[in-house]
Backbone:
């Protein structure tokens, strides 16, 4: 049962060189820089997003994800979920308003897979970039690079999928849209949604906690994904796989790396999900086709290159 969590709100990503990373995320992906803070963090947004920011870059000695956040309907939802998380036995950290510029108070907890997540309800709304809210044009004419439309989801690797499933399904109100099962009936991949999307966050079984596979950004058409591939080649950006289609989620996709080694995805299309839809199940021996529908073969780097 959905409990008032609406959508992914932001992700904070660690990068080794902030200037290099910023060029990648703005000039290639087409995110827009909107702010910097006293901690040296840079705030970015995609052009269709109404909230002030969705991606935060922080320079550090190691790449990866600091945390992913979800926006809730209101502050009462945040309070209620914080109480449920504590009752479940998870420590909850209260983070004051404006610790992230333009964002209200957040609560942060660590999932059983080791990843940190946040819940919040209030963030300054600055509107779509370059689009007036009255009689809007179709798109802004000064977009750079791929012109990604939104931060869409993260794929994360960790050990305790069952515990994290329990938290996201039974406390946060997510639903299971797709899964991969091994021959013993264990879930080794879970794609969770709190919307109509194929997934808002996904987890893959892995021996280590708190590993980051990718942050994904949405494009509208397959032609835009192919254009993204051209831009990846033109800029000598390290490519991982694609353009291709997933079996899981049915999205059309390409994967590549930022200069720090964090993986990005841009994609279009994909399945949709309603609350009455049963989960789609893939067998683990069909994982090649599930991940790379056309080649039907696993790519070792795709499975093992993590930050």
Residues:
């Amino acid at each position: 049962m959905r409990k008032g969590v609406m959508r992914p709100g932001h992700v904070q990503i660690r990068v080794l060189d902030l200037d290099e990373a910023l060029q990648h995320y703005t000039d290639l992906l087409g995110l827009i820089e909107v702010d910097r803070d006293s901690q040296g963090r840079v705030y970015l947004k995609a052009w269709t997003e109404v909230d002030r920011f969705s991606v935060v870059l922080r320079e550090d000695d190691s790449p990866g994800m600091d945390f992913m956040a979800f926006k809730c309907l209101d502050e009462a939802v945040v309070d209620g979920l914080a109480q449920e998380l504590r009752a479940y036995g998870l420590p909850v950290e209260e983070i004051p308003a404006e610790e992230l510029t333009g964002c209200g108070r957040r609560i942060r907890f660590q999932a059983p897979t080791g990843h940190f997540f946040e819940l919040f309800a209030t963030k300054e709304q600055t509107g779509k970039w370059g689009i007036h809210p009255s009689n809007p044009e179709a798109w802004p004419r000064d977009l750079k690079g791929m012109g990604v439309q939104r931060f869409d989801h993260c794929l994360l690797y960790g050990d305790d999928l069952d515990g994290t499933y329990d938290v996201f399904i039974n406390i946060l109100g997510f639903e299971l849209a797709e899964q991969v099962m091994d021959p013993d009936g264990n879930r080794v991949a879970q794609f969770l949604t709190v919307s109509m999307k194929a997934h808002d966050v996904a987890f893959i079984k892995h021996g280590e906690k708190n590993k980051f596979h990718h942050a994904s950004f949405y494009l509208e058409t397959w032609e835009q994904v192919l254009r993204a591939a051209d831009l990846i080649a033109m800029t000598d950006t390290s490519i991982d796989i694609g353009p291709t289609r997933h079996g899981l989620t049915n999205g059309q996709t390409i994967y590549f790396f930022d200069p720090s080694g964090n993986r990005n995805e841009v994609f279009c299309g994909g399945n949709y999900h309603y609350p009455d839809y049963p989960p789609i199940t893939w067998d683990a021996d069909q994982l090649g086709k599930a991940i790379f529908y056309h080649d039907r073969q696993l790519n070792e780097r795709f499975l093992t290159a993590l930050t």
